Amino acid sequence: MAGNRIGALKGAAKRWGVSLRVYLDRRARHLKPCTYCREWKHEDEYCSDESKWDGLAPACKPCHNKQRKHFYYKDVERSRARCREKDGRRREARIKAGRERRRRAKLTKEGGH
Q1: Which residues of the chain have pLDDT under 70?
Q2: 83 domain residue, yes or no
Q3: Alpha-carbon distance 108 to 37, whole Å?
Q4: pTM value?
Q5: 3 state SS for 85-108
Q6: In terms of residue numbers, what domain contains 90?
Q7: What is the SS3 string spanning 75-86?
């Protein structure tokens, strides 16, 4: 298993054009390379992303914002439709949860289970 981890680290260092020692040193100092601007930045400059092994997004916050704006303005109507759809699903979930809460409260008052 350790061989796989070392190999992954070597590959990452090679992709960023640095030696393994430099890569590990920078990571130890809580620096991370941004996949968008390709600069090494402190981990505080990244959004969280729990699906990643380090819990951080691959792009720094300014680059992430640039990407989001680019994709939003690339097709504004589609982006707005997606937001309206998501808002509709949230609203339906809130209404359903409210109905369930009232139903349970009514059962409790009546002495039911």
Answers
A1: 1-3, 112-113
A2: yes
A3: 58
A4: 0.60
A5: HHHHHHHHHHHHHHHHHHHHHHHH
A6: 75-110
A7: CHHHHHHHHHHH
